[in-house]
Structures are given as C-alpha cells and as structure tokens.
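COMPLEX REQUEST
Ligand: FE2/S2 (inorganic) cluster
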Amino acid sequence: MKQMMSFTINGAIFEGEIDHRRTLLEVLRESFGLFGTHKGCDEGHCGACTVIVDGKAVNSCLVLAATVQGKEITTIEGLAQEDKLHPIQDAFVKAGAIQCGFCTPGMIMTTKAFLHKNPNPSEEEIKYALSGNLCRCTGYYQIVEAVKIAAAQMRKEA
Ligand code: FES
Ligand code: FES
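STATUS: Structure written out below.
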C-alpha cells in the first residue's frame, strides 16, 4: 500500500507516494534517484548502503523508509560543497583508498559519523569503526590511512 511520505535528505525535502514496505535504500535510489548509496548484499552485511540518520550511520537496506520520516538523512550526495570535496572524500582520493569505488560511499558515510563522535581515533578504533564495511579491492590499508588523513584535516579545520 502506498502513502504520501516526506523525507529530509541532505537538507532538502523529498516527497512521494511510497509503498510502506520499501526500505530507505530502495527509496533513495528508485524514488529519488540518489544512486550514490550503493546496494550490495541487501542484508546488512556489506555496509555499501550506509547513510547517516540523525547523526548515526545505518545500513539503509535494513531500515524501512516510513520509519525515518522527519529525521535528518545524509547521503554521500550531501557531503561535497559546490565543487569542493568534503575532507573525507578528499582524503580517500589522496590516500588511494578508492579502486572500483563500490564500497566508497558507505565507507565515507561510516567515517563521517565516526569522526564526528571520535575526532582523534587510534588505528584500532578506526578498524573497529569500519568493521561493518567490506571492501574487495584495497586490502583496507589505504582506507585506514584515508581516515587518519581526514581526521587530521578535520581537526585542523575545527
Ligand atoms: S546493501 Fe546494506 S549492508 Fe549490504
Ligand atoms: S574499492 Fe572496490 S570494493 Fe572497495
């Protein structure tokens, strides 16, 4: 059954007739064309679909869209400011942490929520924070380096 739903995504209002069984991931991609949030396993195992809801990183494939109406949703499309990359995006590029790029939006959104809570993390804390995000390409070393670079840059800018 469809009903009119309204969402706040990246600071803008998105509305549509949405089936109440649709997940947030499905709605982002199929209803609103926000394809930066990737669909991997669709079962909560890979982290490719990670977005931020009210400051918390969540697997959007496990969240019913209807339950996040009225919350602040941030997707990868909401990070860059005009033509300037967010420091986390910039760090991923600089560290060579992007190969095929499939995991990258989820990695970056997890990193954003994590660094907001812990701006000066240890390597172990970074690895633990990213443990729900899988990457088949990089071997993770460059991703951990990217998070360190981003954290340092964001502390400088704070
Ligand atoms: S697509 Fe959501 S965790 Fe894999
Ligand atoms: S860069 Fe390919 S899955 Fe991570």
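REMARKS: Residues 98-103, 135-138 surround FE2/S2 (inorganic) cluster (ligand 2) (CB under 6 Å). The longest helix spans residues 141-157.
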